[in-house]
Amino acid sequence: SVVYLNGQFMQAAEAKISPMDRGFLFGDGIYEVIPSYGGRCVGFAAHIQRLQTGLAALDIQCAMTVQDWQQLVQQLIQSNGEGNLGIYLHVSRGTDTKRAHAYPKAIAATIFAYAFEISAEPLADTETAPCYKVITAEDLRWQRCHIKSTALLGNVMHHQQAAALGLNECILFDEHGFLTEGSSTNVFIVKDTVVITPPLSHKILPGITRQLLLSILRQHSKLTVEERPVSKHELLIADEVWLTSSSKEVAAVVEVDGLRIGNQRPGPVWQLAQSLFSQYKYEY
Ligand code: PMP
């Protein structure tokens, strides 16, 4: 496949980065994954905005403007066939001459991007939709989960807790027993047609799918939507539980810690939410 590295497009096998890159040594970088179907991106502006907020939080200087990113992404999509693609963008602080913790002065950021194949656009079909089975665990990641850092070991380890059991995701709770998010997803619950998700804070990633879904439900449905703390008990007795992410969109959870949710099938509110998401996602 064709990838982008530091200003040039090249074959993936030709892309080389120094082991002294701070992305490699420290996970010192920010990334994004933008879904694209038939050449159209979902939430492009919001993804680039989050990338720029993350770079500013880490004081990483990157000269790319929104237009530069747009051009880069369009070119990557075109050279990779315009199908169902995830566009991975990665900016590390850059390559230093030595390994030292302090931010070095005036090194150029390393910019890498590539496209990978993803599943076709999710459908709001209760018969064919994937049904996720998940476990819960105490959130043992760091306290800056709002930053989309390439340092993902905390997330990777939680994901592996689920994967080792043959399950899809690990849903996390903070030290007070309140829901944060999944290892690579945001979490929603539904009770009596009220849709509830934890509020934004340093404990969760501000997911773009979460943001789009909240806007779409508020604008295009009569459902009550709440951003507020969610306890584990509330999650376990919910009518529906959903995971959201760029590639999954809205995904129904049917089992948590071996206990069934609802009637163990994607529910009616899920069906409405995914169908509205499918209808309006390109408008944001
Ligand atoms: N939380 C975490 C920890 C994630 O890694 C992701 C996926 N990037 C999400 C939530 C979902 O975010 P988005 O909807 O922007 O893909």
TrEMBL record:
Catalysed reaction equations from the record: 4-amino-4-deoxychorismate = 4-aminobenzoate + pyruvate + H(+)
Key word Transferase present: yes
Cellular compartments per GO CC: cytosol
InterPro entries reported for this sequence: Aminotrans_IV, Aminotrans_IV_CS, Aminotransferase-like, BCAT-like_C, BCAT-like_N, Class-IV_PLP-Dep_Aminotrnsfr
Gene Ontology terms for molecular function: 4-amino-4-deoxychorismate lyase activity; transaminase activity
Pfam families hit by this protein: Aminotran_4
Gene3D superfamilies, per database record: 3.30.470.10, D-amino Acid Aminotransferase, subunit A, domain 2 (3.20.10.10)
Enzyme Commission code: 4.1.3.38
Pathway named in the protein's UniProt entry: Cofactor biosynthesis; tetrahydrofolate biosynthesis; 4-aminobenzoate from chorismate: step 2/2
Keywords: Aminotransferase, Folate biosynthesis, Pyridoxal phosphate, Transferase
Cofactor(s), names only, from the UniProt record: pyridoxal 5'-phosphate
Family statement drawn from the similarity comment of this UniProt entry: Belongs to the class-IV pyridoxal-phosphate-dependent aminotransferase family.
Family matches, as PANTHER family: AMINO-ACID AMINOTRANSFERASE, D-ALANINE AMINOTRANSFERASE
Name by which UniProt lists this protein: Aminodeoxychorismate lyase
Organism, as annotated: Rheinheimera tangshanensis
Highest classification ranks of the organism: Bacteria, Pseudomonadati, Pseudomonadota, Gammaproteobacteria, Chromatiales
